[in-house]
Amino acid sequence: MKGKSALFWLGLAGAAGAVLFQTSYEVQELEEQLASVNRKIVAEQEAIQVLRAEWSYLNDPTRLETLARTHLALRPTDARQFVASIDVIPMRPTPVMAPAPDAAPLPPMAGLQQAPAKATSPAPAKTTAPAAVVIPASATGAPATAIPAKAIPAKATAGNVAKAPAAPTPQQMAPKALSLPATAKAAPAKQPAPVAAPIPTDSMGVLIARLGGNR
Amino acid sequence: MTDGPQGYEPIGHAYAAPPVAKPRSSLSVAMEQSRNRLMVTAAVVTLAFTAISGKLVASTMMRDPTEPRAHRAADATATPVGRADITDRNGNLLATSLATASLYADPKIVIDPKEAARKLVSVLPELEYRELQEKLSGDKRFVWIKRNLTPRQQAQVHRLGIPGVYFEREERRFYPAAKLTSHVVGYTGVDNRGLAGMEQSFNKRLTTDPRPVRLSLDLRLQHILRKEVAAAMEEFRAIGASAMVFDVNTGEVLAMVSLPDFDPHDPTGLDAETLFNRNTLGVYEMGSTFKIFNTALSLESGKVRPTDMFDAVHPISIGRFTIRDFHPEHRPLSAAEIFEVSSNIGSVRMMLQAGGVPAQRAFMAKMGFLRPTPLELPENGWPLVPNPWREINAMTIAFGHGISVSPMHTVAAAASVINGGVMHPPTLLKREPGAEIPSERVMSQQTSETMRRLFRLVVAEGTAKAANVPGYVVGGKTGTADKQKGRSYARNARMSSFLGAFPMHAPKYVVYVMLDEPKATAKTYGYATGGWVAAPAVGRVIKQIGPLLGVQPVDENSPEIRSAVEINSNGTIPPRGSAVASVPTPGRN
């Protein structure tokens, strides 16, 4: 009896020792893993710090300006390129007649729906009544396009605008003439200078031209 | 010793020894002593064991019963470096610390100094072979070979596998914007202690709090300002320049440039001129720019109105001095016109009418010209103020001579003149939106509004037409001060400046440019005054920063704007609605 009891306690002690031994080794291994992860974290943090510094270095305004000068056709913005207030932008004119099937579409414009070519009525901001719509009668019946250029500032009188739109022939009209801004002072017979006109696919250019940005 | 009755000598009796205590044997004494010693020892031991068991109980049962952990997970968000970043107001890095490796050697362990030196020079060619070999064969236990290696260099040296050569992790301060912010951010020494600029004034904060210090500067504005001022400096061959962009409603400095500047990575071996921040440490006689404060003082006193006429024909003689005008008009001028054409004689007469020395001194104190600005930079100059303040001093101060203040003083005070009369102490730290802005009223709304109109008059029709930018309604005041060389004023060395503000109908920003000793060019018809050299630079700066700051361009010929910013040269304000919008004034666009 006494021997059995002793054996039991001895076995228990042995088992406890073994479990302790095992646990101790497991903990040691986990600690090693933790240390290694910690080292990696610190290394990553240092790498992030280096990358942030590099990002800032590469985004140095002086460097960016040199790059923009050499690779982009953009220039610093000018005060008149800004629309002074949202009220100055004319609303898209309502269609006055059904679009002709063979008319060339307007160049696509950012943020605006594509609209088929049609006679447009200028809507100066300061006048409540829309100016007279000009629909010159031509042999083919194709509509002429008059794009008001004097959007800002709204100094142009209704009379000026009504006089302005030239009536190009249908051949000349599409698609190049669509994007040409007709200035209020231009004589009806005179073609707008092609130098100032943006190319038809240049949607941003068309928008700027409409707002009178490159006058 | 005597037990019997006193005076009685027992005779014939046998001597009986008196009953004394039995003498203690040496053994019992020893026993007693050792027992006491045992008691003391036991007490001490008991005390010690009680303390130990008490501590044992406390640390095992009373405390957090878990085992103390040897390892702790690293904080993923913490910065691995010991010095916080400095960023601009938009969060772009201006200064950061990078962990680098520094190379050192223990010469006792280096086996072959010659070979080690040869190998090291092969990957670090900037080292001197002979010098390195001497270092490695010395008797010391520690020599630096090279500090702050790049990661590539570190890998190369590591691959050489030289015994006795070790790396030490160090930190290196890195300034991505380099020259652009050198005077404001400052720099640190080899031991990463701030030695100048914000690095010095915020040294403690940067080393104790890992969150970045956010400055009020805007890197983009800083770049534009530096570019334009450097161009002006080159064009007019000036020896130095200082420039600032200041927010008049918050007191934040948005850009601060002092030229010549330096690379903060290597600030050694530079002359004092280069390290000197002209905006804050430099104090100068401001010249005509000070007429801003003279006019504001006169109007605020209530004794001078913009329409009052003053004699500007006869030069003023006092003592051995004679005060003349640079461009004499030879006619009486109104107070408004005195500001517009920058008449010295007129300014002096205005000051005398407004109350002379005491009024001027009190006003200058309110403007903060008698003590350093509260800016956070350690480089903060004391103004040079006349003492005693005599009438002759007051007269010269009326047109900006005889008192020297820093450009920062001038800009902060001018901002308070046009922003409605409230002085905001200038700061280089970003004010968080919603935070309270310290402010102090220094003049009435009415005076401030008149000053705004006068600022606009100078740009629209006065000495600074070159600063005009269509759409941004610029106003300002030019200044040209002869430089003092020794005891007299130099004829041909001057400080030319322009203090511009925009948009004048609701002022938001002040742009200040000052050039040190600009030389006239053919393009300026031989002039090197503020209106010719500094005003165009300010115009170019405003043209570029206006869109960045989100200032909405307006049509300056519209009736609302004209009625808000116009004043006639005779000092009258045109009545509302009198300006016909569709007919622009000739000579303006």
How are the secondary structure elements laid out?
The complex is a heterodimer of chains A (215) and B (589).
Chain A: H1 2-58, H2 61-71, H3 158-163, H4 170-179, H5 203-210
Chain B: H1 26-62, E1 86-87, E2 93-105, H2 113-123, H3 129-136, E3 143-149, H4 151-160, E4 165-174, H5 182-185, H6 197-201, H7 203-208, E5 213-214, H8 219-235, E6 240-247, E7 253-259, H9 272-275, E8 284-285, H10 291-301, E9 309-310, E10 316-318, E11 321-323, E12 333-334, H11 335-341, H12 344-354, H13 356-366, H14 391-398, E13 404-405, H15 407-418, E14 422-423, E15 440-441, H16 445-460, E16 475-485, E17 488-502, E18 509-516, H17 530-548, H18 559-565
Parallel strand pairs in B: 1-5
Antiparallel strand pairs in B: 1-2, 2-3, 2-4, 6-7, 6-18, 8-13, 9-12, 10-11, 14-15, 16-17, 17-18
Structure description:
- The complex is a heterodimer of chains A (215) and B (589).
- Helix content of chain A is 43%, strand content 0%.
- Chain A has 215 residues and is mostly helical.
- Residues 107-196 and 210-215 of chain A have low confidence and may be disordered.
- Chain B has 589 residues and is of the alpha+beta class.
- Chain B folds into 2 domains: 86-125 and 144-159 and 166-215, Penicillin-binding protein 2a (Domain 2), CATH 3.90.1310; 223-565, DD-peptidase/beta-lactamase superfamily (Beta-lactamase, 3-Layer(aba) Sandwich).
- Chain B has 18 helices and 18 strands.
- Chain B has helices at residues 26-62, 113-123, 129-136, 151-160, 182-185, 197-201, 203-208, 219-235, 272-275, 291-301, 335-341, 344-354, 356-366, 391-398, 407-418, 445-460, 530-548, 559-565; strands at residues 86-87, 93-105, 143-149, 165-174, 213-214, 240-247, 253-259, 284-285, 309-310, 316-318, 321-323, 333-334, 404-405, 422-423, 440-441, 475-485, 488-502, 509-516.
- The A-B interface holds A 31, 34-35, 37-38, 41-42, 45-46, 49-50, 52-53, 55-57, 59-62, 65, 76-80, 82, 84-85, 153, 155 and B 70-71, 73-74, 76, 78-81, 92-93, 96-99, 174, 176-178, 180, 219-220, 222-224, 227, 469-472, 543-544, 546-547, 552-555, 582.
